[in-house]
Amino acid sequence: MSQETVTFSINEKEITVPKGTTVMEAAKKNDVYIPHFCWHPGLPIAGVCRFCMVKVDGRPKMEIACNLQATPGMKVFTETPEVKDTHKWALEFHLVNHPLDCPICDQAGECRLQDYYMEVGKYKSQMERPKVLKPKALPIGDDLVLDTERCILCDRCVRFEEKITKTGALGIFNRGDRAVVGTYPDKKIHHNYQTNLVDICPVGAFTSKDFRFKQRVWFLKDKPSVCPGCSTGCSVDVYAKPEVRSYFRVKPRESDVNGHWMCDVGRKTYRHMNQEERLRSGIVTGADGFRTRSRFDEAASVLAAKLLEADTNDIALLVSPQYTCEEYNAFFSFFVGKLGVKKVFQWREPTEKIETFDGILYRGDHNPNTRGLADALKKHGLPSDVKNGFDDLARSGAKLVIALVPEIGFQYPSLNAQISKLEELSFVSLWTINGTVFSHKGIAHAIPMKGYAEKKGTFVNFEGKVRELAHAFPAGSDDARDVVEVVAVLSEVLSHSN
Amino acid sequence: MGVIKVALPPDDKNLFQMAYGYFVTISSGMFKTWSIFWKQITKQEKSNTLEWPEQPATYSDRFKGKHFLTKREDGQIRCTACFLCATACPAQCIHIEAGEHPTNEIEKFPVRFEIDILRCVFCGFCEEACPVDAIRLGPEYVMAGGAGEKWVYTKDYLADRSELNGGIVSVKVENTKHYTVDTDLHGDNLLATDAPHMHH
Description:
Chain A is α/β, with parallel strands linked by helices. Chain A has helices spanning 23-29, 81-94, 112-121, 156-163, 195-200, 296-309, 325-338, 370-379, 390-396, 415-423, 483-497; strands spanning 5-10, 13-18, 53-56, 63-64, 75-77, 144-146, 170-173, 180-183, 206-208, 221-226, 235-241, 246-252, 282-285, 291-294, 315-319, 343-346, 400-404, 427-432, 445-448, 457-460, 466-469. In chain B, a hairpin with a 7-residue loop joins strand 2 (94-100) and strand 3. Chain B starts with 14 loop residues before the first helix and ends in a 31-residue tail after the last strand. By secondary structure, chain B is an alpha+beta fold. Chain B has helices spanning 15-41, 84-88, 125-129, 155-160, and strands spanning 67-71, 94-100, 108-116, 135-137, 152-153, 168-169. Chain B contains 4 helices and 6 strands, in the order H-E-H-E-E-H-E-E-H-E. Chain A binds chain B through residues 101-104, 108, 132-140, 145-146, 148-149, 173-174, 178, 180-186, 188, 212-214, 216, 218-219, and chain B through 80-84, 87, 98-100, 104, 107-108, 131-132, 175, 177-178, 180-185, 190-195, 197-198, 200.
């Protein structure tokens, strides 16, 4: 049974779409942009902003494109002077009571009101009466600040709360120009998806406490990446200022894995890459037992010398599932394939509950590449079932341990305790981005790693989908390397010494 | 090939006639110089030359010299840390760190506001970009200093240095919130929009 289709035209261009498609969706698929505030592809249609007006041939009035189903032979026009004029005056209505506090508004630079004013507005205000004043800067959620004056009552947040998180915490109260969006009395927003409200808000009514006042958005560069916070592997955009090596926020990018959303835990996965939290240099211990920070080359040659001295049976690998498939392959090809190391253990969080799922996106397995690690272990003939290997490591009697430390430290509540356990071993080399390892006095050797936004590679998510990491930003430290690069250096040093 | 003659060759025979104009002009000029020198040395006329730096020289308020930050009428710094000056600055010499103000009336303010005066080109774009008249270039022009000098002007220096005599208050109408507007960011009351909160 083939799907019924409808053929109609937008700006005199013939378009065929499945029956039931709205003009807005058809236009979006065909790269015709219709300005809008309240319509969002991930939310039900509300039709409240009255901004996506289009002209339909033969109909006396403008119609809203978001709630207008395409019918055969319909002729839609989106760019006639009449349509532009309608947008202009619709915008003036939206701005009647808008406070215009763009200088202190975090949305400035990515604000629909600003964009459309420059695109279709550019009128002079005709309002003589003072603006209606409403409550400002209300902390209505753990990460949310609400400014009801800036709100244009597009209703997106209310629909998000109803349909996506099903918490229904927000509503629109009062009527007319006194209408405000807000929470019910004594209620605040606490769930794990609240920063999505900041993303979908087309104006600056919702701002994120985490990002609030940190940076103006026009200074930031965004690059696509994959969230390493859990095994769902949401597509994200990482926002950074590469010239000062700082990361500022993570936002969802539309994909078939995560739709339009991501959780608040995933949004924190930029902090560990910032200068104050990351391990910027290697750690080496001299013959006198004195630990110093070192450049990468020195740290690598110290490790290579240790590997040359060590007996293969004394070497053990401790691998966390937070690195890319390419890194695992390079790592195991060298250590297992070339050096013949047999003792390989997994680094996992003892308190984790892998099978839990919150019903939207966030999964109990807080590692992005559990499947990729299992595949790589299988490929190299090693046991691949998920198991915390710390006890086995202690029993194995290994004298030289190389550990790929979890990148997202806050997802491992026992991380510091686990590193303390490793301090008891005779020589352990931590490959990590986590800056706190320096405070563990027993850690004799460390190699600084790149963050997930700084390397190329792939994760395999919980359902086996390959999630591709782009090499988004230059490394935040000159000494940071990914595992592939470290292994290449080690193998070169070792091949020269043989 | 032809040669285009643009001037007649000088008439060597009549040198005095040719140089006559020069002698007249130079001697009348030197007469002026010496007569003023005489008048000033005998104190008949006041000299326009300043003995700077012992004698101060002032420029008009419109001169684009050393920057200063203006204040609100209550003495708070006027800047809202919107970063527009830093965006407009072609020398990238303005560094701002924004923060939440402890009072609700002012939401955003600069925790740090620094101008690297060595990079500044005194173009005045910051002054033009500012939406709240918070930064201006003033008539101070003495900025020379040695290697030990502080070349990064901090917020306190820009707003409160002794030359500003307690700070300059901007006369522009303030963009603070009306007293009826509720803000809760630092309060205990976390209710957002239930009816008693609305005052009209």
